[in-house]
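User: Predict DUF2817 domain-containing protein's structure from this.
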Amino acid sequence: MKAIDDYFPKTYEESRKVFRKNFDIIKALWPNAELTSHSIGKEEDNTIDMIYAEGTETNERVLFMTSGEHGIEGYAGAAMLDVFASELADLVDVKRTGICLIHALNPWGMKHFRRVTENNVDLNRNYLVDSSVPEDINKEYERLLKLFLPDGKIKSYLVEESEIRNHMSRGVVSEGYSGLMEAKGMGQFEFPTGVYFGGKEKEESAVFLISIQRKLLSTFSKVIHMDWHTALGPTKEVTMVMSENDGRSDKELKKEYGLKNVKTFSPGDVKGDSTNHFYEIKNLEFPQTRLFSALFEFGTFGTSMSANIREFLTITLENRLYHEGAEHEEDRQKILSEFKAMFYPDDHDWRLAVLTEGRNAIKGVFKAEGLYTIRG
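Assistant:
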């Protein structure tokens, strides 16, 4: 087994190289497997890479894993793709099971250690079924423009942090802390330089993913989707985040998949996320296909109110830094360090927990969904 840090490359290019190399392992198990690369965005050599194979005898189900929807979060996701290929793929019943593995849905963000695309779009707010952009959808966000939008070059990290905290404490959000969380989670479609921007039109990456969603729903009788992310949930633990479209309760999901942390969310609380989009097109276009689609989040800062405020500060200051810059190099480094600590910590214990918790999550899904090869 590889050393822990060997699962976590330092660059997008190194991570992609590992993914492409693992194709040989997959090809030995699924002889019909194909590796494809799709150029995305304005920069050269930014690609979404995909390994796809159908079951060797039937297309009863497909295991679908995605990583890097939020750019920098793709490093932990790529580690799980590596774990699957090198340690767990040979446990799958290849006769009845296809696979679809996607490395770096947002390659620009992964390469530049940002969550968003090169157009400042939060890709997981960019999937709208009817393609219409909601207007005036996030009332709390509008009340908090001073916090959410860039407002000049950062002169002092400590001063900016203090001002943001003061704005929050003065109750600019109509419902206090809960209002801030609502504004943060809903996403917004009006302010292109603001945080949580869902875009004015579909990003190339979203168009690509939607085409793959439809392909899998039309080809297989069941789609089992694990989408890897970081930040949300208890520190050094994995949390399965599931749309209420699934229909099962938290308690039922915990028992069935053997997970400690499960969180369900309402489609009305979040606009344009890929999981709800998956369920909506399944229900509209492929009602006979069964679907399990969930995010698997590796927690970093934790779940307390102070942790959520720290997360908010980190995201808003990183966004302002990108658009406006900072006067002092030490402030720039502080903001970037906090951002990396939130989404891709250079911490041995956290990375060990990702591998341990991630393996357990994959095995839990394998067991619940009957993906193991029956031997003997």
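Strands lie at 34-39, 47-53, 61-66, 97-103, 222-231, 238-243, 261-265, 290-299.
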